[in-house]
Structure formats: C-alpha cells, structure tokens
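Quick start: read one record
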Amino acid sequence: MSFAREVMHEAKRGASSNNTLVVDLLSGDTVSNVYSDRSKASNVHEVTETLTKVTSTNQALVQAVKRTSELGKSGKEVRAVVLAPGTCDSTILAAISDEAANVSVNTRLYILGITAQNRLCMSHAFRKMPDRIKFATSENEWIQILRKL
C-alpha cells in the first residue's frame, strides 16, 4: 500500500485547497468512494492513512473507467488517477474501450503502476481518447505525471 500512499503524497503536493479530491477504492469487481471533498492537506493526510491494500479484479478496472466518465459529466475539469497493473484480457479491454468512448473531453485519465506487459494492450483499449490517457510503469514516470497535475 506504500505505492498508493506515495501517490497520494505527490498528488497532495500539487493540489490546491480549492480543488475537489475524490478517492475511490477498487475492491473485488467494484469501485467504492472513500473520500470526496476539498483537497485540504489535513483531509488528504487523513484519507491516506486509512488506505489499505485490497484485491480487485479486472472488472474493477472497467468500473474505474466508468467512474471517471461519470465524474467528467459535471463539465468541470477532471484528472483521474487509477493505480492498477492493467490487463491484456480481450473481454476486459473491449469493455474498457466501450467505457473510454464515453469519457468527456474535459477529462484526463492516468493509469499508474501499469506493467510493461499490459501497457500496449491497454493503450489499444484507449485509442478513442489517445490525447487524454497516460500510462506510467516506472516510479519516475508516475512522479512526473503527478507533478504536472
């Protein structure tokens, strides 16, 4: 779970207290919300301390893309960060591709922790939004992404 804590720490550094921070947890086949409020440092620290490692399925990844799409419907700029190794499962990739087609132009999606083996497969699933998706395999890549948020 230290990876998630490191990501939250880096995200907190660049966040304004005027931004809304939404933290969802991928667990099993679902995505559940654990925090949604202003990104005050004390609140972010508190939610970071409550994060625990859970097992999720590839279906949760589909649900994460769907959740990202739903957040973008507000019309506000959305920057969604998903921590997941990705997949090369063709059924899941087709479902991700379908959900990615609904992601609005005001939304950017960052998938951190994706494995090198899954990176190319996942990029094909997001071909409908190539300018709004970024993947990070190495720590150096994800730190650079988070610092630009």
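The domain at 2-148 is CATH 3.40.50.410 (Rossmann fold).
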